[in-house]
Amino acid sequence: MNAEKNVCGDFERAASLAAAEDLVEKKAKIYSRLLTDMSLSEDMTAIAARCEGRKKVLEKLAGGGK
Description:
Elements: H1 2-34, H2 38-62
Helix pairs in contact: 1-2
C-alpha cells in the first residue's frame, strides 16, 4: 500500500510540475512579444520552447500525455 501511495504522489508531483511549466511557458511567450530588446525577446522564445518540451514529458509521466 505504501508503494501505491508513493506512485500516486509521483503522478501528482509530475502533474503539478507540468502545470508550473505551462505557466512559465505562457509568461515567456507574452514577454517575448512585449520586449523591445530583440536578444531578450529571442531568449524568452527559447525559454518558452524548452518549457513546452518539459511540460509534454511531465504530462506523459503524470499519465495525461499523448
